[in-house]
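Section 5: illustrative case.
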């Protein structure tokens, strides 16, 4: 566990967290507006779990499995659930199928909200910004914010995490790509421009390292579990190398071995915060 007193001791990669401010820079605000418009367009057509690309589909399914594996030990029958950045609604449906007492989803894009409502008609789904959630203090037992924080300007990330913690009664789960992942570091050395282009395509404007992610959540009254980092073959690797789907089992074995040998160098991070 990580607490505030030990915060500086647990900055595992010795990186100083990026400073945050109370005011977003104009360029960050413009970027956020552009992303909002982008997500409205994206929400109407994206098919992450039914992608025509095998490796894209596999990546999202594998990450879903890791995240729901974490949620399964936290979400008790009858507990309420909120997915912040609910996208196409798969996590909301998963929670509903597990017997959550109340299932909720919010997203910046109305297109995504409509898709979640269609998938889980019983859920409460609203369009809103992650920094202003329409829930009372400690209203929701388990809150998930998966693959969202990297789309939020650095200056706003701390405020968003505080808002997530405000509405959480028990557990908060945040997932995000690891900018310190071994594959990403190697790719930046070999083709920095291509990596930047791919990040821009998917809206990654504020990627984090493990230590930076933990620093966002450290505050009095919360315990942060050690961040779990997983290796999941990035879609771009499978597509660029034209790997056949028959290599799925081999990829799985390599990923699990990497999880054991270089556990902090994976590309998918999962952080669990618990209110105490």
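Designed sequence:
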């Amino acid at each position: 566990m990580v607490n505030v007193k030990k915060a500086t001791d647990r900055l595992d990669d010795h990186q100083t967290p990026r400073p945050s401010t109370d005011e977003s820079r104009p360029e960050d605000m413009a970027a956020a507006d552009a992303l909002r418009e982008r997500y409205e367009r994206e929400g109407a057509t994206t098919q992450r779990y039914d992608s025509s690309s095998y490796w894209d589909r596999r990546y999202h399914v594998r990450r879903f499995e890791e995240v729901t594996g974490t949620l399964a030990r936290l979400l008790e029958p009858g507990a309420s659930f909120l997915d912040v950045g609910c996208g196409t609604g798969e996590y909301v449906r998963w929670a509903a199928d597990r017997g959550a007492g109340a299932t909720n989803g919010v997203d910046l894009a109305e297109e995504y909200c409509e898709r979640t409502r269609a998938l889980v008609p019983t859920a409460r789904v609203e369009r809103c910004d992650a920094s202003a959630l329409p829930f009372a203090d400690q209203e929701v037992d388990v809150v998930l914010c998966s693959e969202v924080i990297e789309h939020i300007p650095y200056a706003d990330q701390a405020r968003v995490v505080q808002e997530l913690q405000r509405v959480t009664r028990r557990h908060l789960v945040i997932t995000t790509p690891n900018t310190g992942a071994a594959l990403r570091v190697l790719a930046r050395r070999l083709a920095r421009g291509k990596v930047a282009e791919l990040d821009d395509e998917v809206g990654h404007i504020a990627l984090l390292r493990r230590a930076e992610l933990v620093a966002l959540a450290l505050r009095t009254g919360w315990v942060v579990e050690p961040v779990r980092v997983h290796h999941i073959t990035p879609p771009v690797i499978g597509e660029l190398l034209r790997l056949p789907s028959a290599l799925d089992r081999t990829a799985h074995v390599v990923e699990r071995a990497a999880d054991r040998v270089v556990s902090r160098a994976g590309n998918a991070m999962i952080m669990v915060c618990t209110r105490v």
